[in-house]
Amino acid sequence: MPELPEVEVVRIGLQRHVVGSVIEHVDVLHHRPVRRDPRGADGFAAALTGRRVDAARRRGKYFWLALDNGDALLGHLGMSGQMLVQPAGQPDERHLRVRLKLNVPEQELRFVDQRMFGGLLVSTGGADLPTEIAHIARDPLDPEFDDEAFIARARRRSSGIKRQLLDQTLISGVGNIYADEALWRARVHGERPGDRLSRAQVTDVLAHARAVMAAALAQGGTSFDALYVNVNGESGYFDRSLHAYGREGEPCERCGAPIRRVAFMNRSSYFCPSCQPAPRRRRTAAPLPGD
What we know:
CATH topology of the largest domain: N-terminal domain of MutM-like DNA repair proteins
Order of helices and strands: HEHEEEEEEEHHHHEE
Distance between the termini: 50 Å
Strand order of the largest sheet: 1-6-7-5
Strand content: 15-25%
Radius of gyration: 21 Å
């Protein structure tokens, strides 16, 4: 699934190529990607037609195009979604779901999604921040992200630090790949409870999460196949810089121990069992005599 760096790359492309354009016509080729819009496919298309795109914004893994009437086109890429800027004469992609024809000569914005877990909707009054995602926390690359508040909240929780990194109401944009990479860099096991980490450890994890996502952003994101691309159809290259994720059985670049993979929340976690030792189980109080 695209994570913060990949979505930010898409947002930058939309800012560069789409902002200032007027949406002249909308074709919804499959209803599923607009299933969350209460207007239905026809209402979705009508709400966008004639609107000018004033800005491209993002919160966590969501992006939106602010429209000139105060509404927004809100999108999520899901597992395989792509937002592509294409010449109007370009043959349709196999999994093209929504086409937005722009007033820029011979240019279209296309939403392509093979698995159709992603989607688009028009958020009424959502130009500044769509109400549908107002509950999502800011991300570590946001200048207004509150480091101290995150550290304090993480240290009050007994849940594992990786589970907290994936909690979009606590910190947004960090997905499975970058959580594993940040934890490897910080030498912290993902199952370490937040309330058993020092302030310095949580600060270090946060700093590495920010650094690894900034590095991924600089390289265009992480691509393992042809599904993730930017608006020009180009893949990112950060997968060549991964130290833990996807490297099961390969030697840790620090100590040489084989990287281990375990099941985690219907996904996988990758870590070094030597550099990132698993936490000890909490001791339970012994029962008093007669209990």
